[in-house]
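User: Some background: our group keeps a shared notebook of sequences we're curious about, and every so often someone picks one and asks for a predicted structure to add to the entry. Today it's my turn. The entry only has the sequence so far, pasted here. Could you supply the structure so I can complete it?
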Amino acid sequence: MMKKIIKLLGLLIIVITSVGLAGCQRQASSWQKIKERGTLVIGVDDSFVPMDFRQKNGKLVGFDVDLATAVCKEIGLKPDFQTIDWSMKETELRNGTIDVIWNGYTKTKARAKKVAFSRPYLENDQILVTRKKEKINDYRQMKGKILGVQTGSSGADDLDNYPNVLKKRVKITVLYDTYNNAFIDLKAGRIDGLLIDGVYANYYLAHSKYQKEFKKEKLPYPSEKFSVGINKKDQILKDKINQALDHLEKTGELEKIKQKWFN
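Assistant: Of course. Here's the predicted structure to add to the notebook entry:
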């Protein structure tokens, strides 16, 4: 009987060891493919100012563009920015059409079930933007109003996770593919308020000739942290990105990029 138990334990150790080795081999193989390709395929929403957006000449610029380029230089890769449907970002990552999600991507518990996250590199808050002439001075005055929010955004998650703040107050929630389209409707009065990332709203309004027409209010949602979304199987890639971010912070390069875009 004891011999059988010892034999079974031996087989179990072999199986566990094999599974562990297979996992390490998959991680090494995944990183090797990226390294051999020489590029890091980065999924972005190219309408999200000031993180990733197009200039009039079509050139992609932004805080995350500069940061991702600096990180890629540190790890010996060239950035390959790919515009994706933001509502399908986790699917794109899982299917391998992109290597990372890098676009003002908020780390949440729900998303952490699907993807791995790098160390945070920037903080953000969800805010409510309204037109001053509507005289909505407090989010509680959104009762019976029409609210806009971007599909797949962390704001949309907060709307569901903390329904007492806005979801139970508003009459209708309108979903948008981009914040730019939402701002067009807000200015035209087709919606009464817009739930939006603070980094986007602050930059957008600071560079808009209509900024004096709008009012901003911070909402009682938890503060957020932007991180890089990485496939859970790519532990080596995650480690390298974290090491690069740490180095850029120590050298002051990360702060320089922040100053450039947020002053």
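Suggested note for the entry: The first helix runs from residue 2 to 37. The longest strand covers residues 39-44.
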